[in-house]
Amino acid sequence: MPFIGDLDPAGAIAPTDQIPLDQTNADGTTDTRRAPAALFAEWLIGQVTASIGAPATAYTDAALVTAKAYTDQVGASVASTANGHADAVLASAKSYADGVGGTAAAATSAALVAAKAYADTAIADKATPISSLGPVSTVGADDMVGISQGGADHAIRVEDFLDGQTIDAGTLAAAAADTDRVWVGQGSSTMTAQTFSAIWTWMKAKLPGYRRPVVEIAANITLDGSLHNDAILVCSQPVTLTPAFVNMGSGFACSVINVSGGAVTFAAGVVTSSGAQTLATGLGAELRAVSYSGGTLVFASLAGSGAPLTPPGQVTGLTAGVATSGSVALSWQVPVTGGPASGFLVNYRVTSVGGAWTSQSTVSNSLTVSGLAPSTQYDFEVLASNAAGTGPASTIVTGSTVALPTLVPGQVTGLVASGPTASSVSLAWTAPATGGAVATYTVQFRITGAGSWTTAATGVVVTTYLVTSLTAATAYDFQVLAVNVVGNGTGSATANATTLLAVPGLPTALAAGAATGTTMPLTWTAPASGGAVATYTARWSPAGTNTWTVVAGIVGASTTITGLSLSTSYDFEVSAVNAGGSSAWTAAVTAATTSGGNYLLTAGFAPTAGTTWQVNLGGIIVNTNDNSVAGDGSHTVPASVSHAFSLSNSVVPTTGFQGVASQFSNGGHNWWGTYMTAPATPGNYYIWAVAKDAGANVVATLCLPTAFTVTA
């Protein structure tokens, strides 16, 4: 007898086909074959006579019960799937019934109608319109969104909605192109797309309207990137510009224009194209700060420094101003032609005599010519000069000194002392309205209550003066006397001022103590120099960002900074303060906050090391112990634990978490469990557990030490 493997393969099955069978019939005969239709009727459906309606009905009733039970288990979100399953069950029942005769088919057809109606009703009853659901106001990474994929309904986590891509984890784009797009909100919060080409067109339209900032410089300054970068510095006084690379930064650039009557000086640290450290009046310079392999450089390219120097042109606008019995004040405009002027020669002579000139020199565009005779008219001329020579003389102007006074000046009035510092006080007054003409003023001071006066200055020709070299925190009296050749006028009424405390010195030994998740204790040592400290000011910034938050009014040499973020590094600095001002900031101390609790994750039940899975395989069980029970050390219970696959065993993942793990107790441990799905891409993966606190801060992490293999 042949084995079944020796038989020729059959074609499609038909109702008239015969199947071998060893069976004794009711009449005593033994069958050795049976048609498939009869076999299905007697064995699969239970028919043994031609009256087969009842058994067929019983079978289809059972099918209906199965369909009903299935549809009761489904909701609106899987309605289409339930409908499909019900149809499949009913169709199978019908196919069986069709094979055993019309009566069974008729009974089955009626059952099919009833089953289909029931399934449709169950599905409709389970459906819930989305408009009837409660709204939410925020969206979290682990929230679920419904999605239809391949004709079936599914849900996807919000974090994975864009294939798990956040801006920091996204695949790097290729070189930018005009057709690239970015999101924009245009007149509303609705997001629309805009191409780089359109953005560049908008920028080009704006560029012609851009104007560089103009900053007037009337006093000596230290260059600062936040104030002077990309600016046009117009120097209206012969000032000094001092570089400070730490404040300027590599790439700093500004333009300098000297419109003052004297030279603008570039302090040490500026390298110039001409080798000279001065910028003559009427000239400009382009200044750059750069960092390169050789170090740092502040470079000034002086206008015209590469061309041969020529003598200055003619001085214009010469004017004679205020005169005394022995002096005449002059002012003029610098030449606008020829080379830059580095100095001026002022010539004068008695008008009635003429002849040879007497000269005085200056680097400014004004000068008070002194040593003149009373009641005399003089001729004046000015010549500009530089290293290449002297330019032509200006037009001659005349000015006369006044007659010698016959009376001493009257009393100075309106004396005011203001603007005290630790070592100086500013004075201002009004010239006498009576007595002889004033030639100069004498300024005097004394400690309040003392008997004698100390002369701060003589020969002052203006009505203001800054008294310096005073003692800090001391009360002073001040007076001013008008002077001429006849003598001194009566001293002014006394003005009073008290100098400020000296600015404190620099605090030392700044140190950070034992941090918590949100606080950082600081201590330091009081300054060993300078004035007495009134209070301290501390400031802090996320490490390396220079975005400072200031805490002022600290009494004593310690404080605790609060309001910090968990597991974050910060820079801390301190300054000492009193009425005289603030010291410099200490060097920064960098320290990090803690994770904010006593958290610890260890491995619980995990797949066997070296396990291999196919891509997208589900049901991978992973449990993690948070060690919060007493036997595990009573560590802090986290607010959540999530699990994720990662190709790295050293970099904590920030995306790809497979929901929030379920928390449960078992075997004297507190577990967090997840049924994980293998990644969709083959590779060697590690499983991570990441714990977070109630503020969504990462407080503990765990990486299972062995990689798992995912295959296609």
Topology:
Elements: E1 19-24, E2 30-34, H1 36-44, H2 53-72, H3 79-98, H4 102-126, E3 144-149, E4 152-157, E5 181-185, E6 191-195, H5 196-206, E7 214-217, E8 221-222, H6 225-228, E9 232-235, E10 240-242, H7 245-248, E11 253-258, E12 264-266, E13 270-272, E14 278-279, E15 284-292, E16 295-302, E17 316-323, E18 327-333, E19 343-350, E20 358-362, E21 366-370, E22 377-386, E23 389-390, E24 397-400, E25 413-418, E26 425-430, E27 440-447, E28 454-460, E29 464-467, E30 475-484, E31 487-488, E32 495-498, E33 508-512, E34 520-525, E35 535-542, E36 549-554, E37 558-561, E38 569-578, E39 581-582, E40 589-592, E41 602-603, E42 612-614, E43 620-625, E44 640-646, E45 657-660, E46 662-666, E47 669-676, E48 683-692, E49 698-703, E50 708-711
Helix pairs in contact: 2-3, 2-4, 3-4
Structure description:
The protein is mainly β and 712 residues long. It is built from 7 helices and 50 strands. The strands form 13 sheets. Strands 7-9-11-15-16-13 form a 6-stranded mixed sheet, with no helix packed on it. Strands 42, 44, 45, 48, 49 and 50 form a 6-stranded mixed sheet that branches. Strands 19, 20, 22, 23 and 24 form a 5-stranded antiparallel sheet that branches. Helix 2 (53-72) packs antiparallel against helix 3 (79-98). The longest helix has 25 residues, at 102-126. It is elongated, with a radius of gyration of 48 Å.
Key features?
712 residues, mainly beta, 6-stranded mixed β-sheet, 13% helix, elongated
